[in-house]
Amino acid sequence: MSFYDNRYYYINKTLLSVIGQWPFQSRLEGNVMLVITLFFLGSLTVLELWGLIAGIKNLSIIMENASPLLINSLIFIKLINCLYNKDKMKDLLEHIEKTWKTTQIGPETEILLNYAEQSKTLIIKYISILYMLGGLYTTIPVIVSRLYSLLPTNETYSARFLYRLEHVLDVDKYFNLLMLHAFIGVFFLISVWAAADGMFILCTYHVCALFEGIRYNMERIRGSDFVAVEPNIADDEAYHIIIGCIKSYKRALTLVLVASLNVEMHVV
User: Which positions, given as ranges, span the membrane (predicted)?
Assistant: First the structure.
């Protein structure tokens, strides 16, 4: 079983795997999921752009189609950033795994566990909000359409879609097919968003855990009687703690440098 199958990081692994960006998944699986993601993101964007171009003289159409296109553009930037920095992401994850495996059981492990738990909790809350908003956004046309079908009226109601497309396509005729496509497309849109930001959250909390571990060890030295006139390095506990702090600092600095390459894109 992979280290990242544990309960702290399994969500990050799943989200990145869905969009084909988990660095440790097989090439075949990654490519297949990436193609599926690109297909639905691309086709959704093409339909929105088609409606916008065809109705470019209508201000209402411009307003209703430009907004989702802007969001799609931001999601594409996040996905391109993930593709470009996939190798760096792998190095970062390997650093995190190495930290867990080399940290001795004790207070430092408790610090890692505490921050990992906080990271998992925040990610769950964050992606839950994203998926709920996405679900609400996609289900509104279905709910409205069903309500109108139940109302006792002789008026003909034209189904209102997520974006303006009725001037180029018979939305009433293809409503169910378009809604199915929209559900899947929005799912992948949110998955890219959640996966990228979830990875950023994971790295941020892990770096905080490393610096908290350094603080703990420095306080151990300050509050203990490790001082010796001519210490034997092999038995000098203070020396080994300081060396450990230096290694932890270098590891944290490496993670910060790698993570900083993704900050601007991930927080878009």
Answer: 32-53, 65-84, 129-148, 174-196
- Residue 239 — very low, low, confident or very high, per pLDDT cuts 50/70/90? low
pLDDT tens figures, 64-110: 888 889 999 999 999 998 888 888 888 888 888 888 887 777 787 88
pLDDT band at 265 (very low <50, low <70, confident <90, very high): very low
Taking residue 219's Cβ as centre, other Cβ atoms within 10 Å add up to 10
Q: How far is CA 260 from CA 122, 164, 252, 255, 267, in A?
A: 20, 39, 12, 8, 11
Q: How far, in Å, CA of 168 to CA of 123, rounded? A: 40
Which parts of the chain fold into alpha helices (H)? Answer: 10-18, 27-54, 59-84, 86-102, 107-150, 175-222, 237-266
Closest CA to 205 of 126, 92, 112: 112
Hunting for tokens 């399994």 — which residue is that? 10
| Closest-CA residue to 95 (of 267, 262, 257, 265) | 257
Nearest to 122 by CA among 48, 185, 200: 200
CA-to-CA distance for 53 and 43, rounded, in angstroms? 15
pTM over the 0.85 mark: no
Going from the C-alpha of 135 to that of each of 92, 131, 152, 162, 188, the distances in angstroms are 32, 6, 28, 12, 12
